[in-house]
Amino acid sequence: MTNKENINEVNTQESVQAAPAQESPARKEFRRKRVKRIKAALLFLLVFFLVVPNLLCAFLLYKLYQMNKSLNLLREEIKISQTEIERRTKETTAVLVDEYGNPINMGTETVELPDDANLPDEERYPGQQLVYLTFDDGPGKYTNEILDILKEHNVKATFFVLAADGYDAEYNRIIAEGHTLAMHSYTHRYSEIYSSLEAFENDINSLSAFLVEKTGVRPRFYRFPGGSSNDVAHVDTADMIHFLTQEGYVYYDWNVSSEDASKELKETNTIVKNVLNGIGNKSNSVVLLHDSAAKPTTVEALPIIIETLQKKENVVFLPITDRTRQVYHVKPELPQEEVKAPEERSEEPEARSEGVYEEADDENKEDAKPEDVQDAADESADEGSED
Questions:
Q1: Is the pTM of this model over 0.85?
Q2: Fewer CB within 10 Å, N side or C side of the chain?
Q3: 191 Cβ contact list (under 8 Å, min separation 6)
Q4: Where does 109-378 sit in CATH, by number?
């Protein structure tokens, strides 16, 4: 072989080696598919790590919402159950609360309500201070406000009322809300009421008829205008007491005075102080207050008095009833079946059952003064006079 031929052969081999190898169609298709699979895998991973966590978060938020909703429903069910338990507890422990809403609990020691509901109040509430709030001279512009305060504080009281047209709703509200409707005077004019025994009887009979017409109820309790110890009456007090007893009335004076009966308007704090000091540690307090247009500070003092006394564990507020110890300035006479005619009676009326009646201290006998008589005659019932 010549040199020329050798050179051509070498060049041919180098050309063959330099030219790229031609891939077969099958290999190209394999490689294309592999690239496609890699792209698909990468896309799947991208979707998985971006979308799935978001979906998971959304799912967890939904479950959290559902759980919160279930918890709210459970709370409502628990609240309803607690309310039902409290209701049933009140029903089953009604013995711990009297008909006036006063708790019978004394600290950790439970005092059960006696079976005999006719027992005197002191026996029903042993060891407790009994407070009887009484309001004279109503109804008037403040009566509803007084009733609202009593209702708010769950307190029952006694209203010694006058005859006043236009207050039918107030008379009936007093009864409907569990207070005692009692009699004070038809006219509240001392010069007329105490001018004679007949005038005294007419005043009471007129008021009784008026209240029966307005409410259908005949009150049994009475308070003398000026108290039973007033010094303006031209009638023997024993004869007036005899009339009351014969007619089935029981009269009540007071042993704690707010002193709001004075002509000058008493300051609220003065009324509060007078009542709280007057009650002190008394076991039985009949408190004299007034319900008239001239006594706005009495209304202001009332919630303060109640709230202060309710902070004491042993205070019970009650209305005057047949179970209430009678507080008087002039002694009552014998029970009706034992009453003697006026001419057969001794000069000093005999007190009834020992331990059931209580004579007020001299300082609480706020007698009406002669100069008050003309004022009582001239002023309207709402403007009021001393007691």
A1: no
A2: N
A3: 373, 374, 376, 377
A4: 3.20.20.370
